[in-house]
Each structure stands twice: as C-alpha cells, then as structure tokens.
Amino acid sequence: MRLQIDTDLRYSMVEPVDLLLAVEVARMADQSPVDERLIVDGIGPLRAIDGEDGIGRRQWMRAEGDFHARYQAVVNVERRPVTIDELPITPRRDLPPRVIPYLWPSRYCEADRFEAFVEREFPGDNHGRKILAMARWIREHLDYCPGSTDARTTAVDVFVSRQGVCRDFAHLLASLARAAGVPARLASAYAWQLDPPDFHAVVEVWLAGDWYLVDPTELAPLDGLVRIAVGRDATDIAFMTIFGAADLIEQTIRVERIGGD
After folding, report:
1. pLDDT (tens digit, 9 = 90+) per residue, 15-67?
2. How many CA atoms lie within 13 A of 237 on its CB side?
3. Is the domain of 129 the same as that of 195?
4. Are residues 114 and 233 in the same domain?
5. Is 109 in the same domain as 230?
6. Helix (H) or strand (E) holding 179
7. Could you say which DSSP state residue 151 is in?
8. CA proximity to 169, closest of 128, 130, 200, 194
9. Which residues of 104-149 form beta strands (DSSP E)?
10. How far is it, in rounded angstroms, from Cα 31 to Cα 26?
11. Which domain covers residue 201, as residue numbers?
C-alpha cells in the first residue's frame, strides 16, 4: 500500500519557546518513506535527534510568534496481516534487556495498579489472545468521547470514568498488558481511514520475539498505520512538546491511498 501524508500545523507562540517536533515518518522494516519534505517557519535552526529506541526522528527548535510546520510524505507500507492469537507470551525472565522497561509503570500507565484486576479478569492463557481479550474488554466497557479527557488523564482515570480517546484507550491497554507481564509501548501514527483525520495512538506488544501492533479502538486498519514514534506513554510520542505557552490556530492531517498493494 502506498499512502500520501500531508500535515499542516499552525500555532502562535505566546513567548519564545523551545519546541520538540515529531511528525516525520519512522523508517522501519514494514514502512518506508519514498519522498518526504518538512518545512517549518517562525523558528531558529533545526537540530535532529533520534526517537525512543532509535525509532523515528524528532526536531529541536526555538520558536516565537507565528509558527507554521508542514510535513508531506509518500510512504510505502508493506505489512502483512498477522494473527497474534497463538503467539506465546515470553516469560519475564527470558525477555531481552531492551524491552524490560516496557514492563514498568510510567506516568500515564500505572500498570502496577491493575495487577489484581488482570489476574481476576484475564486468568490463564499465555498467548496473544489474552491481549486481544483486553482490547475487546476496553472497547466494550469504554465510550469513545472526544473532549472527555485532557493531558493529565491517566489509565486509572480512564478505567474509572469509562470514557476517553485513542491515547486513553492505548494507555489502558498498555497498562493491562504490562500488568500481565507483556511488554507494551505506545506508538503515534498516521492512520488511513481514520475519521476524523488526526494523529492516532495505538499499542505495540512484545510477543514471540517481536513487536506487534494492536489498536484497541479499531478505528483504522492496521495495514494503514504509519508509525511516527514509540515510547512508554504519551509523554514519549507527542507530536509536539512545547516548553512554554502556545495557542492553536489550525491543525490539519490528511492520509490518502494513492496506489500499491
């Protein structure tokens, strides 16, 4: 599948700020940009740094006044459908060192507070179907409600309120998976067929020696996801981190299929 991405961000900085931008497509085995361009106005020099786990790229900059960033890319996505039902959960003691941090609680994913719930609600079965059961439970018990949460909302908050948006669904799934001993990380992504178009948050779980995508919202097909960044939670995958104050003027994201299988 070949996708065309067009992202346009317009903000007004209340004061000069340091800003970390993460909107560029990550180069990975199942997705590769064949053409891309990032243009940013109203800033100082860009400084590129690697994203979490060496996946994706962030741009440091100094911004003030009117800020305009536009990112355009054509991306080949070659992701075969994978059923994770029968994939075994790796025992904690056998996990590679690089994935162990994704077992731990984080700011928005209080995995330790879900251990009793996971043991009671999802007993036994050490395969990927346990993760799919968790995702199904989230869809059945949470309402997708734009505007119902904010930047302070954690997985525990969402579990109590039973409502949220994609990042909240992802935080809760990652927390439940970690509580069951499965490394889980969040991924920010562009999503084909997502309505309304926006940045999307999904989960990757470590099973049978590799990472596998799971979208607890099921709002977009997995083969139409294009990852931008990965990390412990929304802190690590934010498309823009502003160290100061800013006002949103306009934000548009378009993802269209332009050909390819």
Report:
1. 999 999 999 999 999 999 999 999 998 787 899 999 999 999 999 999 999 99
2. 29
3. yes
4. yes
5. yes
6. helix 166-179
7. T
8. 200
9. 143-144
10. 8
11. 92-237
